[in-house]
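REQUEST FORM: STRUCTURE PREDICTION
Request ID: SP-0412
Submitted by: Lab K.M.
Chain count: 1
Length (residues): 74
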Amino acid sequence: MAQALSLEAAYLEGDDPVAQSGIHGGRERWVAERSPLVGAVEKSGDFLDVGCANGLLLSDVVGWTLERGIHLVP
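STATUS: Completed
RESULT:
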């Protein structure tokens, strides 16, 4: 349990949502490494992100697919 609390504290210590999601290297790296995920989404519908840390990935996936005319319900 102590290890989980330590990990949680490390993720949330800064105010950068990308760093809080476990990635260091900024927004550009985040988008480059995460946005290809939406290539697998072909139609509108529900989307479940299990273990979504601070929710940034889920939020971005909804936005990235919307840019392609696909509406996801998180």
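NOTES: The beta strands are 45-46, 72-73.
Reviewed by: T.R.
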